[in-house]
Amino acid sequence: MKAARIIRLLAVAASALLLAAMPALAQVKVGSKNFTEQFIVAELYAQALEAAGIKVERKINLGGTLIAHKALEEKQIDLYPEYTGTMLLAVLKAEPMTDRKAVYDKVKAEYAAKGLVVLNETPMNNSYDMVVRPGDRRAVQARDAVRSREGLEGAEARRRPRVPRPQGRASRPQGEVRDGVQGRPAARDRAALPGAGEQADRRRQRLLDRRHDRRDEAEAPEGRQGLWPPYFIVPVVRKDALDANPKIADVLNQVSALLDRERTMAEMNYKVDGEKMEPKDVARDFLKSKGVVK
Predict the structure, then answer these.
(1) Average pLDDT, stretch 265-273?
(2) Which comes out higher in pLDDT, residue 166 or 123?
(3) Domain span at residue 254?
(4) Does one domain contain both 251 and 117?
């Protein structure tokens, strides 16, 4: 009996020493850029990680693209949501590309060389769209003029009606106006509206009716015709943070898979911008509906 007790005490002591020797896993620092969609997606990441038992520190609303990227490189954050097209053009300063796989493979490889891991894309593409008021003949002409690359290139010569430009750098994160139209001279004059990003829903609403009458529905083009790079949302994670807790990848990839339709993200954006809900509440409601959190 005495020997058995001594063995048990030694086992407890050994376990305590082992735990003391192991480095404590620091909180995972989740960041975001400075617009509505980023706040929501960062909350989706943070709350899903917490539901999986991972402690999270939020560093949301850091600033524009290059600020968030620098924070990642300098280990001020461990991860944040980014867009493949933004990574290609604003961060890597690469030539414009429109093939989804080619863009993803390039940014994944280039980021890996920087010690950063690009996880799975969302199924939805948050690229640029053209949205016009139904029945507005001049706007429909403008939309039709820029639906194809050929129409876009020749629109200026034909003096088609002009369409609204995205609001400037003051309202859209650094790099995300420039990267959307880089290398497309005609597109710079006739830049389309972002599909589901910062302030997009407000702009759509102004197009529908300046007095917020929602009786009409906006008309969007049938396809983007390869005018802009793909903008799929991806979690970008520091490799050392992922090595310390590989579970992060599974959790974030699960979240990405849930963002399967552009309307899904647009509806969440509108709940914040239009209905004035908190991003954390919108994220929680969505994750609850998918059974990720209780």
Answers:
(1) 96
(2) 123
(3) 26-126+231-289
(4) yes
